[in-house]
Amino acid sequence: MLLRRLRNARTLAVLAVAGAVLAPLPAASDPAGPAPRPVSAPGAAAPPRTVSAWLPYWDQENAYKIALRHADQLHTVSPFWYRMKSAGRVDLHGGAGSRRIVDGLHRAGIKVVPTVMETLPRGALAAVVTDPGRRATHVETLLKVVRSRAYDGIDLDYESIAPTGDAAYEKVRDGYATLVTDLCRRLHALRKQCVVTVSPKTAGTGRVWDYRRLGAAADRLRVMAYNLHWAEGSPGPLSTPAWYDEILRRATAEVPRDKLEMGLPAYGWDWAVGKRDRARHVTSLEAEALRRKVGAPYRIDPTSRTPHFTYEDGGTRRTVWYQDARGTAAHLPVLRRYGVRHTVLWALGFEDPNLWRELARS
Question: Cys staple from 309: which of 253, 296, 318, 341, with CB 3.0 to 4.6 Å?
C-alpha cells in the first residue's frame, strides 16, 4: 500500500484485495431514513467505544469547532500539523502549534497528539530508519516537537516505506520498528503518548509493518482502514465489511485489542468512468451535496454496504463512492465481533453529521 496525505489532493491510497462477500443490505431510498444498527448477541452489553480524529490544517477552524461540539465522544485529536523533511528536520504546516487550539481542546477534556507525516522521495525514509545514527537524531527531533507545546504525545504517520521492495523490506521493517520502540520508550519516560499510524495488513499488503513490535511499543496503533479503491485505481468502495474482517483478523492476532484504533473514512472519490484520470477527492458532506445537486438517487451497494451514485458532467459520465453514517453503521459490527472498541476518523469536518450519533450508539 502507498499512502500519502497532501493538502490539495488529500491522497490516501491502499492497494488491497477484497474479502468474501457478505449478505446484502436492502437498498435505501433516502439517507434520512433509519440507519442499520450493529448486531450484538442477545442480552450482551455493548462495550464502551472511544473516538479519535485527525484535524486537517487546511480546514482548521471548522474542524476545531466540530471537535469541541463532540468533546464528550472524543478521546484524542491529532492535528495534522507537522511534516518530516529529514532525520533532523520537522517542518510545520500552516497554523501548526496553535496554543489557542491546544488549550481549547485540553479544556474540553480531549488529548492533543499531533501527527507528523512525511512525503519523502523513494528510499529517503528507509535510509533514516535503517541507520542507527540517523534514527537517534530523528528521535531527538521528534521529542523537541513534543516539548514545544503542552502536547500529550505524538502520532507518527510515515507511509513512504509501505511499497518497499522484496530485497529491502525486512531491513526497513525492522528499522522502523526499532525507531518506534526507541521513541515510545523516551515518550513514556516523559509520561507522553506514543501513537503509530499504519496501513492494513492483508494477504497482499502491509508486510513492511511489524504489527507485533509496533503494538508492543505504542499506546495506540491506528490502522488506516480505507481506500480499498483509491484515486488512481478503478472505481469502487473505500471499504467493505469483508475487508474489515480480514484486516482485524490479522491485526488482533498481533496487537492487543485495546491498543487498536480502526481508521474510518469520512470522504470519497469521484471517478470519470472509462478514463485514466485521477479521481477527485470529496468529503462525505461534499459527496452528499453533489448527489442532491445532480438529482441522483441514494443507493447503498449491497456488498460493500456503502453509498454510491453516477451522474453526467460535461458529457463525461462520473461515479462517486463515499462513506456516510449509514454505511459506517453497517461496518461497525465487524469491530464489535473482534472486540475492537477504538476508532479514529479521517477527518474532522469531512463527516456526515449523523456519524457521531452512530458512533455513540454503536
Answer: 296
CATH of the domain at 157: 3.20.20.80
The Cα 266–Cα 61 span in angstroms is 18
Q: Are 176 and 129 in contact (CB under 8 A)?
A: yes
Q: 269: closest CA among 58, 12, 28, 57? A: 12
Q: What is the pLDDT of residues 289-339, one digit of tens each?
A: 999 999 999 999 999 999 999 999 999 999 999 999 999 999 999 999 999
Domain holding 97, by residue range, is 50-361
Helix 325-337 / helix 241-254 crossing angle, nearest 10 deg: 40
Query: What one-character-per-residue DSSP string does 188-246 give?
Result: HHTT-EEEEEEPPP-SSS-TT--HHHHHHH-SEEEE----SS-TTS-S--S--HHHHHH
- Reading the block at residue 9, the C-alpha cell is 489532493
- The three grid cell numbers given for residue 134, joined into one nine-digit string: 540517523
Tens-digit pLDDT profile for residues 250-273: 999 999 999 999 999 999 999 999
Cell numbers placing 31? 439517507
Q: pTM of the prediction?
A: 0.88
Residue 290 lies in a domain: yes
CA distance 305 to 300: 6
For the chain, the residue count is: 362
To which H or E segment does residue 325 belong?
A: helix 325-337
How many domains does one find in the chain? 1
DSSP characters for 301-313?
-TTT--EEEEEEE
Instruction: Give the three cell numbers for residue 263.
Output: 481508521
φ, ψ for residue 143, nearest 5 deg = -65, -35
- Tell me whether residue 41 is in a domain: no
Q: Amino acid letter at 22?
A: L
Q: Residues of 84-120 as b/e, b for ≥16 C-beta within 10 angstroms? A: bebbeebeebeebbbeebbebbeeeebbbbbbbbbeb
Residue 3 lies in a domain: no
Where does residue 244 fall: left (phi above 0), alpha (psi -120 to 50 degrees), or beta otherwise? alpha
Residue closest to 1 by CA, chosen among 159, 153, 215? 159
Domain assignment of residue 28, yes or no:
no
pLDDT at 102: 98
Residue 41 grid cell: 448477541
